[in-house]
Specification:
Number of helices of chain B: 11
Number of domains of chain C: 1
Number of strands of chain C: 2
Number of domains of chain B: 1
Strand order of the largest sheet of chain C: 1-2
Oligomer: heterotrimer
Largest interface: A-C, 92 and 84 residues
CATH topology of chain C: Arp2/3 complex 21 kDa subunit ARPC3
Chains: A mainly alpha (about 260), B alpha/beta (about 250), C mainly alpha (about 325)
Largest sheet of chain C: 2 strands, antiparallel
Largest sheet of chain B: 6 strands, mixed
Strand content of chain C: under 5%
Low-confidence stretches of chain C: 264-276, 322-330
């Protein structure tokens, strides 16, 4: 049984950003990302502005680039595609270092890469400064369907437990010489997962019994009081997308 | 004995089971005429071999299982469809696997779950939660996630979650299983300090000697013995006949 | 595949978002009479199971590994409505809580990875169960084919979205061929894992497989595909994938003729109007726009049919389930 380990993407700090309520941060980051995703790819100034805004946000949140950059690996497959684009796309070509590259491919690749990296960085900033249960409560405050946020809360609650069971099962299999490399050696793995599903389901039934034992009758009660977020809190959080708005406007003026 | 005056004076037994019969959907008999009672404030141990029906019996006390025959009475109130909700508030059930009953994202929310379901809100709810956390000395864990706690901490928080509804009876299923000696000691001390009737299902016979003046021995769905712990646990033949024994070095005083 | 922000255009994100929200709303309503108040903990731990299962490295060949998507599996185990909700929750929390997949890409990520896989997979599964024997083997086989189909449908849906909302100049037919070809192979892996898990659960607790209603338990546990079958399936899908691609490349006119004969496209003049609806990128560089649009039409019909059937079954089951709940028990 592990004690005290937290989410690998969360940075334990006490910054202004960390203390902002979750629902405010979700709105701010989503707005920022939407502004980045919809910026025309030729508006280089917009992407430059987004980068600056993110760097400021990371600094204020005391999240280091050294922490962020390795975690951007999640978008690597798309970056690979973006890099290949200038080589495989059709249309007029231009010479870069002696290599003919499709203009359309260069812009396309840049667009995909820039939006992927900036979007992922914004998401990482959110997750690094907000613990997942708080994020779910934030979504509830934003009027997300309660059934979904409740299912999500239970999922997050039991995720580590089940992941632990998966790894223990795998360890036991490996200890008995199981080292699958080919598709037809899948059977023990899938059989193990089947057992795990049954165990998870039975755990769900026990949890339900425990809920009924404490008076649950179908709808989750209101447990924590909602404190309204003040104007100051919103102003701080919305600074991020606000910087993006400025960058977008500047880009329109400069790039036309 | 079950009149209203007795209830209000707290004189009614915390638990009364009589003639309890139960069999599983596949036909196997689990309880075969159980008669058992726990007085207000009394601590009683429920022991027996695996498969004796101890947990099955325990699950009848708060209506999670409903008997085929016989009655369940908690604080003088007979269990039926109309009293189910009230009974569930009066019986605090602590399950074997704390992981199953700490299902919220934080300790505070888990402790608040019970009282909130029974109607408490706002400041009243917060006060009740704080009191339960303090009683179990887990106030410092209030904002932690339950799956990040140690086994002993989880047990204490689990007790806090059921104590928060102010039950008349605490039913604990194997509370010391899997705990390290220090956590076990803390738990026993905690249970001794709680002012509520307790029915403790357990294999931990030394704990029974420490905590529970009376023991009920159950085997094959029947009550085999019911008496003072010191007598019952000194009867080696009786224990051996039901696959029990005191651990090496212990003697029933 | 958790697409990043801006991979598809904003209108595409919005449209798929609305479709996903609608499917999820229908699922929320449909799941209500089913499990009473234990939906929440059961769906929650199952979502945790799916999330954990997606993290498992499955061997494919000589050290390469693949991962489970889980949409069809969730539907077969929990039924279409809860199955859809469970996988949707997984995808959404992965984006918001684990920075996997863009926040603004949730529309198409949820649609492709949850809606299409769960509903499309369920539709194929139910269709197959009509013809296959009502035994554990029959259910397992249906689950296998349904999961392969769910993955291929997901790839098709994505290709279709690329046609409308591409963000770069990669022609539709390239994307389609690549996506569907690759995902046919990925689908085999998904199929084997799903079949294996379903068979294992059927052996221990058949009552937990919602899709196995009414099977003959006496027929014994499921007989699973042997290595030879697997190799044959892989070879077959390779042949199909390569064959389709080659056909499209070598004989576009042949394909066009077929499309014309079957009435998918009208005369050449009309499509010029139609192409203005699509993103310039998707049709840029395509040698035969007509063929692309014909394929798109066929694919669109297929995906709509699969997802629509799944949704219909979901709603109809709920109504029937509600009526059964009020009927006197036998």
């Amino acid at each position: 049984m592990g004690a005290g380990h937290t989410h690998p993407l969360y940075v334990h700090e006490h910054s202004v950003v960390h203390h902002l309520p979750a629902h405010v941060k979700v709105v701010a980051v989503f707005t920022f990302t939407a502004l980045v995703a919809t910026a025309p790819r030729e508006h280089l100034l917009a992407f430059a502005g987004a980068t600056v805004a993110l760097l400021i946000g990371l600094r204020v949140a005391r999240v280091r680039l050294r922490f962020l950059l390795p975690r951007l690996a999640v978008v690597t497959p798309f970056l690979v595609g973006a890099v290949l684009l200038p080589f495989v796309a059709s249309g007029p070509r231009t010479e870069v270092l002696g290599i003919p590259l499709a203009v359309e491919g260069l812009w396309g690749g840049f667009g995909i890469a820039a939006r992927a990296i900036l979007g992922a960085s914004a998401s990482l900033l959110l997750v690094a400064t907000t613990e997942v249960p708080d994020l779910l409560r934030g979504l509830e405050r934003l009027r997300a369907p309660r059934l979904l946020t409740q299912i999500a809360a239970f999922m997050v609650r039991y995720l580590e437990v089940i992941v632990g069971e998966v790894s223990r099962q795998r360890r036991a299999m490996t200890a008995r010489g199981y080292d699958p490399r080919w598709l037809w050696q899948l059977r023990p793995l899938t059989a193990g997962l089947g057992v795990l599903f049954v165990r998870s389901y039975e755990r769900g039934e026990r949890v339900h019994a425990a809920m009924r034992a404490r008076g649950f009758e179908g709808s989750m009660p209101v447990l924590l009081a909602e404190r309204p977020a003040g104007a100051r809190v919103w102003t701080v959080a919305l600074a991020l997308p606000a910087m993006m708005v400025v960058a977008r406007i500047a880009a329109v003026l400069v790039h036309g | 004995m079950t009149d209203i005056a007795a209830n209000e004076a707290g004189g009614a037994p915390a638990l009364e089971l009589s003639g309890l019969r139960f069999h599983y959907p596949d036909g196997t008999a689990a309880l075969d005429g159980i008669k058992l009672s726990v007085a207000a404030g009394e601590r009683v141990a429920l022991v027996g071999p695996n498969g004796a029906g101890k947990t099955t019996l325990a699950l009848h006390t708060n209506g999670l299982l409903r008997a085929d025959a016989g009655t369940v009475r908690v604080a003088g109130i007979t269990l039926d469809d109309t009293t189910l909700r009230d009974i569930r508030r009066r019986v605090g059930f602590v399950f074997q696997d704390a992981e199953d009953q700490l299902f919220m994202s934080s300790v505070r929310e888990d402790v608040a779950f019970g009282p909130a379901n029974h109607g408490l809100r706002g400041d009243e709810l917060d006060a009740r939660v704080d009191a339960a956390l303090a009683a179990l000395e887990v106030t410092h864990l209030a904002d932690r996630a339950p799956h990040h706690l140690s086994g002993g901490e989880q047990r204490r928080v689990a007790i806090a979650t059921v104590l928060a509804v102010r039950p008349d009876l605490l039913v604990l299923d194997e509370p010391t299983a899997g705990l390290d000696p220090a956590s076990r000691r803390e738990l026993i001390t905690t249970l001794r300090g709680l002012d509520v009737a307790q029915l403790i299902v357990t294999h931990d016979l030394p704990m029974v000697l420490e905590l529970c003046p009376r023991t009920v021995l159950v085997d094959a769905g029947r009550v085999v013995a019911n008496g003072p712990s010191t007598e019952l646990l000194a009867d080696e033949a009786l224990l051996a006949a039901h696959r029990l024994e005191l651990p090496f070095g212990h003697a029933a005083r | 595949m958790h697409a990043p922000d801006g991979f598809l255009t904003a209108p595409t994100a919005i449209v798929t978002g609305v479709l996903s929200a609608g499917a999820m709303a229908a699922s929320i309503r449909a799941s209500r009479p089913e499990l009473d108040d234990d939906r929440i903990p059961l769906a929650g731990v199952t979502a945790a199971f799916v999330f954990a299962a997606q993290m498992v490295n499955f061997p494919v060949a000589a050290g390469t590994t693949g991962h489970l998507m889980g949409g069809a599996l969730a539907a077969v185990l929990l039924g279409p409505s809860l199955g859809l909700l469970v996988v949707a929750v997984v995808v959404i929390v992965q984006a918001i809580g684990f920075a996997d997949g863009g926040l603004t890409a949730l529309g198409y990520n949820v649609f492709n990875m949850a809606v299409v896989t769960a509903l499309g997979g369920w539709a194929v599964f139910r269709g197959l169960r009509r013809f296959l024997p009502a035994t554990a083997t029959g259910v397992t086989l249906a689950a296998f084919v349904a999961s392969v189909a769910s993955v291929v449908l997901s790839a098709m849906a994505f290709s279709l979205q690329w046609l409308f909302g591409a963000s770069a100049a990669v022609p539709f037919d390239t994307v389609f061929t690549a996506m569907v070809g690759v995902h046919t192979l990925i689908g085999i892996g998904e199929g084997l894992v799903t079949a294996g898990v379903v068979a294992a659960v059927l052996a221990v607790r058949p009552d937990l497989v919602r899709g196995a209603d009414g099977i003959d338990r006496a027929a014994g546990p499921a007989k699973l595909p042997r290595a030879r079958f697997v190799l044959a399936a892989v070879a077959a899908s390779l042949v199909v994938a390569i064959g389709v691609a080659q056909f499209a490349v070598d004989d576009p006119d042949g394909l066009e003729r077929v499309a014309e004969d079957t009435g998918f496209i009208a005369s050449a003049e009309e499509h010029a109007l139609g192409s203005s609806v699509f993103a310039d990128y998707a049709t840029a560089g395509v040698e035969n726009e007509t063929v692309s649009l014909a394929i798109a039409g066929a694919v669109g019909t297929l995906v709509t049919l699969a997802v629509g059937t799944g949704l219909l079954l979901l709603v109809r089951d709920r109504r029937r389930g509600g009526a059964a709940a009020h009927a006197p028990t036998a």
